[in-house]
Amino acid sequence: MSTTKKFLYVNRKAPYGTIYALESLEVVLIGAAFEQDVSLAFLDDGVFQLTKDQKTDGIGIKNFSPTYRALGDYDVTKLYVEKESLAERGLTAEDLQEIMYEDEDDDWEEKPSLRFVTRAEMADIMADQDVVLSF
Amino acid sequence: MSTLHTVNKSPFATQSLLSCLNHAKDGDAVLMIEDGVYGALSGSGMSEMVQAKAANVVIYVMSPDADARGLSADKMLAEVKGVDYAGFVNLVTEHDRTQSWL
Predict the structure, then answer these.
(1) CATH of the domain at B28
(2) Rounded CA gap, B37 and B32, in Å?
(3) In this structure, is residue A1 part of a structural domain?
(4) At a CB cut-off of 8 Å and minimum separation 6, what does A130 contact?
(5) Rounded to whole angstroms, how far apart are CA atoms A100 and A112?
(6) Interface check A65 vs B, CB under 8 A
(7) What confidence tens digit (pLDDT) does each residue in A55-113 have?
(8) Is residue A120 domain-resident?
(9) Does residue A2 have a pLDDT over 80?
């Protein structure tokens, strides 16, 4: 007998400068095979992972930002982004790439995966989990 | 006599840029590289301090690092100048020493 647990992957690091962002993405994709209730949180410098128009040709590192758009195919459809973290960095929702998923419970309608939440709401989301994985 | 300062950490994650700006002397240059390029963002909590310092210290950003992170020119402070890797080498030769703020 298997039970479903709520898993939260917490992303607080910018991409490319360290390996955390890429490693988090790898673990999310591996974990997706276990059919758990998965959410991702992006706060502090983690919001930089989602910026659009990333072009990495000049630094010789693979641009992994398109992978976030594939998460919906693995039933990872809840990407929580902290509003205060964006504002402190001079960013708005328009600076992030659009990430959509097809809702199988609603005639496969396309819906946004990014959910913008306040710091207080993020704290509630964290407190609601069974397992929290930090990157 | 002048110093080239390099900063490779996000100003929102560490105090490296803050400390660098507080120690850089007039006529020095500051080059933001790797995650340090986030220091060039406009409209952030760090923007005002970087803008003020730009009056006395030339501030550069490594363009390939900015491009990788999706920081287009319209998201960065007008006071910050873009350089490529060859420009980095030139900056090193033009200054008497290079100091890394890790």
Answers:
(1) 3.40.1260.10
(2) 5
(3) no
(4) A5, A6, A7
(5) 4
(6) yes
(7) 999 999 999 999 999 999 999 999 999 999 999 999 999 999 999 999 999 999 999 99
(8) yes
(9) no
Asked whether residue A48 is domain-assigned, the answer is yes
| Residues spanned by the domain of A99 | 6-134
- DSSP strand pairing (B29-32 vs B3-7): parallel
B32 in contact with A, Cβ within 8 Å: no
Contacts of B5 (CB under 8 A, 6+ apart): B20, B23, B24, B28, B29, B30, B31, B98, B99, B100, B101
A82 touches chain B (CB under 8 A): no
If you count DSSP H runs as helices and E runs as strands, how many of each does chain B have, helices first? Answer: 4, 5
Structural domains in chain B (count)? 1
| Length of chain B measured in residues | 102
**How many structural domains are present in chain A?**
1
